Structures are given as C-alpha cells and as structure tokens.
Amino acid sequence: MGKPGIDFPGLGTGLAILRDGKILLYRRLKAPEAGFWSIVGGKVDHMEPAAKAAIREAEEESGLSIGQIEYLCTEEVMVEADRQHWISLIYVCRDFSGEPRLVEPDKLSDFGWFGRAELPSQLSDFAKATIAHLSEDDLR
Q: Which string of b and e fits 65-81 if b means at least 16 CB within 10 Å?
C-alpha cells in the first residue's frame, strides 16, 4: 500500500496558533525536517475533514483546547533530504484555552512563542510558507 509522503504525496494539515502577535512553534525530532521549528500539524486520516484533523493534531501535540479556526492557505512541500512530499491545508487559530506543553516528547523537543523579528533560524518549509501568509497584525 505504501506510506503517505514517502511512497506517494501525503495529505497533511497544519495550524498556526497565534497569541499577542506571536506564533507557537515546536522543534521537530522526526522527519520531515527533524531539528527544524514548525507549526503543529500532521496527516489527515481517511474520511477525516482537514479542519478537524488540524484541531486534533494541534490538541494532541500542544495540549491546548482549540476553538474556532479559519482556513489560511494550501502549501506543497517537497523535502529532498528526507524524500518526502506533502500537500497541506493550513489553518489559523486565535481561539484556544490552556497553556502549551510538550505532550509528545518523542516527536517534539521544544516550543515557544515567536514574533516576526525573533523567529528561529531553522524554520521548516511549512512554517516559512505559513508565516508568509500571515498579516503584519497577526505576527509582529
């Protein structure tokens, strides 16, 4: 059958979580782009709406309770170094409760809130694309 993203393009989703002009980023431990900072997200399961997958993945990875989300963009990323190919629907969230934490330490090692001027140097391609779509008001 094969693995999404490796044997054929995978369908993923991501969520840009925003608070006070900053975006929540986590450092990835696994491919694609291990060691890079990225938004929360993951693959869309069969028969699962992408928006629900974005909420599910964000809650699993951050421990936050996610409220209303809005569609932001669709991005296609091919990571040659990892031989992975993903197409992801990206959403944005300003409506959540709780404080982020490391819920999946086997997948993510660090997290933080970053404004546009303080972004980490090792940003994932999905994080770069997402940030490019955010307004100046969203990310200061």
A: ebeebeebbebebebee
Give a three-class secondary structure readout of the chain: CCCECCCECEEEEEEEEEECCEEEEEEECCCCCCCCEECEEEECCCCCCHHHHHHHHHHHHHCCEECCEEEEEEEEEEEHHHCEEEEEEEEEECCEECCCCCCCCCCEEEEEEECHHHCCCCECHHHHHHHHHCCCCCCC
Neighbours of 46 (CB within 10 A): 6
Give the pLDDT of residue 83: 95
Q: pLDDT tens digits for 45-58?
A: 999 999 999 999 99
Using CA atoms, how far residue 121 sits from 27, 38, 116, 134, in Å, is 12, 11, 11, 18
Render pLDDT for 77-114 as a digit per residue (tens, 0 to 9).
999 999 999 999 999 999 999 999 999 999 999 999 99
